[in-house]
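As the next step, I wrote out a protein sequence along with its fold in token form, included below for the reader:
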Amino acid sequence: MKDLGAEHLAGHEGVQLLGLLNLYLEQEERFQPREKGLSLIEATPENDNTLCPGLRNAKVEDLRSLANFFGSCTETFVLAVNILDRFLALMKVKPKHLSCIGVCSFLLAARIVEEDCNIPSTHDVIRISQCKCTASDIKRMEKIISEKLHYELEATTALNFLHLYHTIILCHTSERKEILSLDKLEAQLKACNCRLVFSKAKPSVLALCLLNLEVETLKSVELLEILLLVKKHSKINDTEFFYWRELVSKCLAEYSSPECCKPDLKKLVWIVSRRTAQNLHNSYYSVPELPTIPEGGCFDESESEDSCEDMSCGEESLSSSPPSDQECTFFFNFKVAQTLCFPS
């Protein structure tokens, strides 16, 4: 078996890969949420006035649904979670502000990761997320988050290590490249991100644990040996590795169980006023008999445009509150809701 030295990888992008790995290892601690702050959140009991793990986890699941809705890549979601956790571990946040902070984390991450054409507008994200805050609230909160994180928003995350480790393995193995599914590994990482405890793990360790568990299921001795060399090069000690691998294994077992409500399957709840609902095209929330479409006919875009009323601003506008009796709740799948927000 090949050694994991750069001299044995010349001509196979080895020098660049190991150089990048060393850079990631140097940077990872700098972009980790403060462990003391995360521990304070973990120790907080659930009540209406303090931020507890359940509220944080629920917000991350909302971010995942938001990222899925707008077609954002995994990197955007993972970076948004990193920004969110770094800020929550640094500041004492009231639950009523969490929705606004979550939306801001998503928008900040999207502007870093996504192409300009794929960055959702603040207005659309406010409408879809139902965060009950205004564009000016978002702008102010983005400034606060950026300042508190010293404008260091582009972080080295577990996803960076996962991609790099995966590439290094493919450079060394003689087995079929499709045997180790990166999509599956990314999905498992997102499941871990939905739990606060994994924000305390080093990104390099979390990524290696995911790969190790997947390789064990494949029963590949060659891949396992390569991972051991990666672990040695990354200077990950056995105690730390086995501790987090056990937690990751439990998380994935629960995530794959039938009882688990996976974030990807979470239905989007869109709350609109009666006035807005009346302006929606009937076909969006009912199934009438459709007339034959005449040739040469065109669709009037004005029929599907929904009116958006201004939301109240100020601190109270950032808090979550149940809909009044003047509001209606509609349940749409992602495709239908996307049609509503972006009429063709």
Summary: Residues 284 and 336 are 7 Å apart (CA to CA).
